[in-house]
């Protein structure tokens, strides 16, 4: 295919940071999970306990799926089979859209299409990049699992390699706690998965061990159930699921007419696939067979290694590639499958704030719905937490350290809200940085050439970010309250949990305000806001478990959030709100004094 | 009270971006009520000057006055009195053209409904289309309609006709002529010379961040040579002469047996070429 090689090279060059960050970030998350599992569940009795508790609770079944072997490998495969697989799908979706619909939208495809390249070459190059990423992820996952299964020496070397160096000295307990927590609570799920996301979003290897410097230990230690075949099966599962969703994105890129909606539709399919397998694992099992993520789990890597099942995602990828190619051949460059709908000939927008709200409305609604669903899920299983954890004192201890509470359910909810606040901060950062996008795209210029001051323009997007954080947390708190109240029959839980969730908002505001300060003062360095989020995440979530010095932990605004419900309100929220106001003011001051970047 | 006669007065303007000096002592004077052409090749600093005038960039040195005020310090107040059309209009992909026109109009402090409707008609623009569906020319029209329909003293137009077809260019020229008739000031940055020649009272030509020529078209022509196009028995003649050389030239042509003769003042095209069309080494020497 003429031009394919050049386009593939161009795509790899454009993705030289993003692609390794995804692969190594996901690899690092896999490594941390499997390392800590290998350490935590050495004892067969502890594994059986997991199987009989988590393996039979509908909530955890829905989140992770079913457990197919009670070896360490079996648990690792189980734990990585749900959300981590979904993240592999997310990676290829974003990659494919970026090199297909996004290029058409910006006109880059037109520029390239006028040169000597085959009409199908851009789509083929995008799929080739996604294939490369999927295979690389498969290799990294295989290596990470093997390294984790290689025994204690490897495991502790890896821990040293991570920034959790201090944890290594105190033996396996800190990691054990982390892992137990992750296994025992859905709050922990969000924790590790947020970590995976955050590290994937930044430089990949910063928080955890550097995936590239893995100590490769091929020895399959007896009893762990981690062997080469199993590790390869898990790696192949990640690659195959990644490929299947690359196919999904290749089709949605043909159907829609913007990269935003192409991504949205494909991520919707991903979410549906996850939800279908969640229902299948918790209820009628045949449903799992309708979902590409379910297929990945049915490979049962590190347990039964059912290789033929891999043919299902691969066949789907092949079929979707053909569908995408056919659709692509039938449409014009830049057009979607359906003609664009006209908009209103008259506008109602009259202020910068109305414009900002209009631009951010869709994203905010999506995030709020996600928070409500998470809140409802966490809230409705809160009451089960005590039963799930059973007699595991390690887990109780870890959870109480994180939540700072004696009352286990409150501790769980408080930890959950803390994690939701971190995710809300991610929302707020991207909402604030919309300002930078408007600036560099040239769309800010006509607005600022009207009687709109820079301060007013910046505040329009920033205030949506700040109010959005409160809205997301209120949605999660309200939904958690409803879910918890349905379990306990106590309607007072609704206002109690809504208020508790809202007290977490000021910490997220600090990061939003930091993004605004960077935008105002160092516009080229706005990505540092994401780095700060990753750091805050590492400090608050891993700090108490890893016995880091309190002064270091206190750097994070999230360390000053009250541990509610159950704890004291304290001055933390006020301090955080004040800090946020100061950072925001600094950002606005900087913005008034600097040149605007023009397109 | 002292009355400002200059809508725009720039003197000694310097703007650097890192090591590169985008504006290097630029001068620009635009009188109230005139249509002023702002000419220069790509990268000469036209858009940078306009961004300084809009308070989007801060001047490093020199004085800049816009409608009697400081464009950096009083940007918001001054922007009430002007409308701006960028050279490359980017729209929000999911907002319709009509929504953007109304938004920009309201943000400027009001829109003339009748003019809005008339302009949509004249520019043949469908306001119901979404931003992502517009061609470059249509995006340009959205910004033009929003600017011409607002009630302002000054229009700053940065290569506003890029992407417009010739028919729409005619509509644009008519609109600018109407603005002039209503006493508004227009700063028209362009490198379409016929457009500037047809529309502008005075012209400033810049190059590499410096003003190289400024004045009315008549003044500029006065400074320059006369173009002679003639047919003689010895063959065609095409040359440019200083006004003082004219008698000698005519004698020479008469001797050569002239059969046809056209003498005209230089077009702006020729003025422009004198400054930018020169061979590189010649241009280098003039610096």
**Count of discrete domains of chain B:** 2
Q: Which stretches of chain A are poorly predicted, pLDDT < 50 over at least 5 residues?
A: 151-222
| Secondary structural class of chain A | mainly alpha
Beta content of chain A: under 5%
Question: How many beta strands in the DSSP annotation of chain A?
Answer: 0
What coarse outline of chain A follows from CA principal-axis ratios? globular
Largest interface by Cβ-Cβ < 8 Å: A-B, 38 and 45 residues
Mean pLDDT across every amino acid position of chain A:
81
What would you report as the Rg of chain B, rounded to the nearest angstrom? 22 Å
Alpha plus pi helix count of chain B: 11
Bin the strand percentage of chain B.
25-35%
CATH class of the largest domain in chain B: Alpha Beta
The CATH topology of the largest domain in chain B comes to Rossmann fold
The topology string of helices and strands of chain A comes to: HHHHHHHHHHHHHHHHHHHHHHHHHHHHH
What is the topology?
The complex is a heterodimer of chains A (599) and B (287).
Chain A: H1 4-14, H2 18-40, H3 44-53, H4 58-64, H5 72-80, H6 83-99, H7 101-106, H8 108-113, H9 121-149, H10 152-161, H11 165-169, H12 173-184, H13 186-201, H14 228-255, H15 259-282, H16 292-298, H17 311-330, H18 352-381, H19 385-389, H20 393-403, H21 408-432, H22 434-441, H23 444-448, H24 454-488, H25 493-502, H26 505-521, H27 528-542, H28 550-553, H29 572-593
Chain B: E1 6-17, E2 20-31, E3 35-39, H1 46-53, E4 61-66, H2 75-79, E5 82-85, H3 97-108, H4 113-122, H5 136-148, E6 154-158, H6 166-181, E7 185-190, H7 193-199, E8 202-207, E9 210-216, H8 217-223, E10 226-232, E11 235-241, H9 246-255, E12 258-264, H10 268-276, H11 280-286
Parallel strand pairs in B: 3-7, 3-8, 5-6, 6-7
Antiparallel strand pairs in B: 1-2, 1-4, 8-9, 10-11, 10-12
Helix pairs in contact in B: 3-5
Protein name (chain A): ABC transporter permease
Transmembrane segments (chain A): 21-38, 76-96, 123-148, 228-253, 265-287, 307-327, 364-382, 411-433, 464-485, 497-520, 527-546, 574-591
Keywords (chain A): Membrane, Transmembrane, Transmembrane helix
